[in-house]
User: Fold these one by one.
Assistant:
Number 1:
Amino acid sequence: MKFKFYLALYISKLIKNTLHILSKFMKVNGSHLPGNIATKICPNFLSIVSKPKTIIAVTGTNGKTTTSNLIIDALEAKGYKVLNNKTGSNVLGGVTTSLFSGVSLGNKSKFDIAVLEVDEKSTPRIFKYVTPTYLVVTNLFRDSLKRNAHSEYIFDLINKSIPEETTLILNADDLISNKLKAKNSNKKIYFGINELDTDTNESINIVNDARICPICYSKLKYNFVRYHHIGKAYCENCGYKSPEADYIVKKVDYQNNFINVFYDGKEFEYKMVSDSIFNIYNQIAAITVLKQLKIKDKDIKDIFLNMEVTKDRVKIEKIGNYSIINHLAKGQNPVACSIVFKYVKERKTSKEIVLLVEDYHDNKESSENTAWFYDCDFEFLNDESIKRIIVSGVIAKDIEFRLLLAGVSKEKIVALKDENEVAEKLSYNEENEIFILYDMYQSKAVDKVNSDIKRKIEKITK
Amino acid sequence: MVRIEFLFPEVANLYGDPFNVKYLKNSLKDAEVIETTLTDEPRFVNEEIDMIYMGSMSEKAQVIIIEKLKKYKNELQEFINKNKVVLFTGNAFEILGKYIEDEEQNKIEGLGIIDTYAIIDRKHRYNTLFLGELNCEEKLKILGFKATFSFSYTDNTKDYFCKSIRGCGNHKESNLEGIRIKNLFGTYLIGPLLIINPKFTKYIMRLLGEDNPELQFEKEAMDCYEEKLKIFEKQEINYLQ
């Protein structure tokens, strides 16, 4: 067994280095490949490979990359060497690659601490061999129905895979993931955000996967709903209620860019890393982790002074008097798209929207399962501030129909088979911001639409 | 007025299924939708109801709902016998069968109203398109999507919902999809079934007593249907996803 392990270690290290050199000359994508080969040669490789003493794993539907990065950056700023899979993959192979990269040829770990982002569906395979000291679960939502089915399915996968020794760091406001290991002895620490002015009493979203009490199945009462099943709730019938947060954001000051966090009987003020509520959750999750690692309050404060979450999902461009805003809207993910649609609606300008959200691959080889359109709040796009919606793609007509059912008037909608005519259909009224909402596999269409629009603007302004 | 009872929307609401009820209500001239929750007594037990709908749910919700409906099994059976309309989409119709067994051999007894049983395997998800002919005189073409962990097994040679043209039936080797007993329609198809199948929706509306049914956005719905049918009939497209 020992022989097999070292054979696997050397071969996979060699492959990893070769891939690294190759990547300088060409596009090679495969941070999971060396890890997969190691496991092929030695099936329990992951259990034998030496690991750092402290392992922080981060999983959840949204925000796991941002949260991991915040923790890594903070620890590195404090001088720690942090083993991580930031540039690699978050499935079994990728995590294996990261872990063996952190050991010497004699299988000695070179790091004291690891921060690993873990894909939700990969938790059973990874936690079988890797016991996280801390596991952060950011949240659990409906995701792609084809791959992830429903949130209870993902919940069960994670719940069954968490080792007894792991301390859980959970979102008190997430009525699904806050129930992880509820019946087990795992230590649990909760983070949350107090009621905000923007919260409501009833869910305004189509999807809310926590409508009933998990104990007696009566309808849950919400003290407040933030979005979907994020909020605080209780059961009138049996007394069940959301857990109290140990680390709680008491105040969010958007004007001065800080948050007030309460824990250990004291209140602390931190600079916000981003003004989106989702990133405030990620930040409070990171703060909770840093506190467990005994980082001093003052140090955490200083670390955040110089930190900012880059908005790689939004690109705002000004061309003359025109604004073009490209915003990623992950297709087949109804919650992610609903959040983007709400953001567009709430922007205090008038706008025209280009929707490139259908799945490129599915519609090329097959026909996209359109069920997710009906889990997604297209209703947010039925708003006075939205003057025109141009939908492009093979199944543009299906999206047009969804918009009609959402109450958008037919005159506002233009449905096109492909991206070629999109730029022609905009009004180029300087008062309207141009939004391009796109799925990540639509890059070809996104590029075409952007360059056509720019050409058009140039022509007009000449 | 047509009264539609939507059973347990607080849990049986996956994959956009509830929009079927919304679209049907908006298309009917005069309809009321009653949402019955797990703590209510179902309305079909003591009131005049014209149609019952239930949508996709988690495997745990199936157990809760079976437990809930056990008491009302006879009334539900009677409702079906009286030729009333029942539409169950996704895995909802599995609860009507004899039992449901999961990948760990946990077996739960179903309502036993129909002669089927379901096998769940959460380790393998099955995604496919479906094209078939409705079990009715007009042989309407039905389009749909499946995304499932489970399959049903039974002899449904007489009682099927659709005969498959492409895409599997109740299980991978079957070409007969779902069940149809009188006006009970049970199908694994998920999501906007009534929205992408306007002809079927009108068929249901006729069963509900609307002689000249007219759909909400009928022209657009028909255009979408014809266009999608053309795509689904192309030999070169993949059904498995």
Number 2:
Amino acid sequence: MVETVLSVRNLEVAFLSGHGRSQVVNGISFDVNPGETLAIVGESGSGKSVTSLAITRLLDARSSEVKGQILLNGRDLTVLPEREMRKVRGGEIGMIFQEPMTSLNPVLPVGKQLSETLVLHRKMSVSEARAETVRLFDRVSIPAAATRLDDFPHQFSGGMRQRVMIAMALACRPKLLIADEPTTALDVTIQAEILQLLRQLQAEEQMSILFITHDMGVVAEIAHRTLVMFRGNLVEHGDTVDIFHEPKNNYTRTLLAAVPRLGSMTGTSEPAHFVLPFQDQQPLPPQKAETSSTRKPTTEKAPTVLEVRDLVTRFDINNGFMGRLGGRVHAVENISFNLKAGETLSVVGESGCGKSTTGRSIMRLEHPLSGEIVVDGQDLMKCSAAELRKARTKMQMIFQDPYASLNPRIRIGDAIAEPMLLHGMTNRRESKDRVAQLLREVGLLPDMMRRFPHEFSGGQRQRISIARALAVRPKLIIADEAVSALDVSVKAQVVNLMLDLQKGMNLSYLFISHDMAVVERISHRVAVMYLGEIVEIGPRASIFGNPMHPYTKRLLSAVPVPEPRERGKRPAPPIRELPSPIRPPNYIAPKREYREVSAGHICQEWDRSEWAQ
Amino acid sequence: MTVILETTPSRYALWHRFVHQNLSVVVGGVLLLSVILIALVGPIIYSVDPNAISPLRRLKPPSTLYWFGTDALGRDLFARVIAGGRISLLVGVSVSVLSLACGILLGLVSGFFRSVDAIMSRVLEAFMAIPAVLLAIALMALTTASVGNVIIALTISEIPRVTRLMRSVVFTLRGQPFVEAAIASGAPIHHVLFRHILPNTLAPLIVQGTFICGSAIIVESILSFIGAGTPSSIPTWGNIIADGRTFFQIYPHMIFFPAVFLSITVLSINLIGDGLRDYLDPRMSRNM
């Protein structure tokens, strides 16, 4: 019989607050075997992170109550004295978290932080510890490990920092590694690298991993067994392949149906809804007949709503002596595209590629350096301030963070009515009816208009933001990572809503996202951005089916595939640091050549030596 | 999703919890209310002229007849202390309201428009380089001694601090998506400033207002004490203490009573401010 590393029995966690006692984990039991990865998957509020905190006893004893048994190699952690527990944490259990920057001390060199742990826990001498640190950095594939020991955390990229965190977690050769959303804050190519590293380390060290995530794609990539949690309950538990192919629980089925799958759209050119079973779908009211019948299909004939020509946005960095110009961030560099009525153009790329700045520049929330932004025939770069205010009714923006994008002190009815009243499109009395109608259109109830934003969930708030954006009847909506912060099932619903609204109102979307799977589902056309430039643009089917630029290929190959049987079949992407878009003040952007691959599919010519791998 | 298991607690339990969690606000509030009550109602019930000189009853210790005793000119100290309370509270409240009003406006503009901020910040820094008391003394030297001028002088020396606080709060709010959403929906600047930014800044500024109120009362007393504030004919706590200092070793009561009132008033205001800060935003204690 194989002895289990971790055995959790009837774990119950409750939080005690001023408002009473709330149960967050309802008696769950599971085992982690040696050399095995167990994934706990669930949406926000499912209790998955609380479970990991309860295991490491990191919950505040004054405000929480933990019941049940947690056996680590046969020892019950719930009754261990705090002194012993401290040896367990970082000794027998290694931990990595979502945000590597906050877990590292910013004023100490990373090598020192790691070797201190070694001196303390493994009683090494300083020189031994330093040698061991180099070895550990090599193990986690930090390039030129020996030269980077004296660097500070801010000198590392996000992915490299997470490698440092993994090296620290491995320092005391733990038997169990608890990874709480370790790749959520990382770009998809970096995520693929880190998952690959974890798989490799596990095989070498025979270490068990408890992997906490909300992402079914990541689960499929890494977990042997999977545990699905929903509102503090364990709803399904089993082999990852079984969970994905024969889910027994309705919630698991809903969750899996909502997972965007890359490649599921092959052979079509129009966007498609998510098919969600067992969901209390809020039916949309039928759209007015004349709008849907007069709607032109997205063909060549549709009028152009947005035209961007040679847009350049740069940010000065004044870090020189006496605030002199030290350099410039070339956030957006010479990009051009157009967008037709009723069409969705997605802008994809990794963080720092300039996709958000593009959206904000078009909205004129940033000041572009040069270029043309023609919205509905009007060049926004040549507008006066008053004209610009008026022009903003033609385009609206939806932001990523549903919690920060609504003013916490304004009732949602007033928030939705505000843009209409500002532009004199309605009066106070009529605006009520219009707000009620808008709320119905986004799947909410009209009597919610008297509530404040904090009374809504994230998904509902994003619906409110959409209603506010629609209030002025815009032609173009810029959605800046509009569904990225939402739980997977809510994300699918909001995407479906956006597709319905587009059909009904002939809206154009500029959909800015890093999530390739959602992009594949929602877009007509796709633009791939890299270092402030569009490297490839074209019809969605063509970009996903026949990617030309090496960066597009790399991006697509890094997307986790929610299919556990495919695991390990794809080659690991080579480790590559994203170059910085910061240039010296005298930098002149190179002239780029483009070629047309197929109808409408344009690709930038690339430097063969830069991409040779 | 969490499930609340407990039923709604009784009214008494809620009150008990509120007192327990906001002890400093409750204690401060009770103390301040008593001081205000004494200052407002006192002169009506205890109708003795605080400026009536009577050589016959000079330098009397506290007794049932003269509760706080009398001073070197035979003036009733209890009447003088409660009259002084009115001046102190008037100065404290006026200075905090005026400096908040000016500071909020300046900070709003300075925090939102970078170009204005570049100039305004330098001016404010110049003002903040001078200690508030010295600035007030210098301003008082330019004008005649009166309660109104004391209020103006103290307000001017407090404005830079309020402006700086407001500016930093506006700075962080300006980048919030809901502010950008308002700009993106075509809202004019004044609408963005007053409807979206201003209401979200009030919590830390109200707290700052209480601290200004407390410090204004102290600075007013300092000015009176050194003779740079209200004219000595008006009974303020600072003036009473100044009058009593020559007799302090023989008749300590002349300083004791106004000093106790001054301390209790400022302490209660600061307690309320501390409590409000924790109540309005638990993170503020670290941010400020």
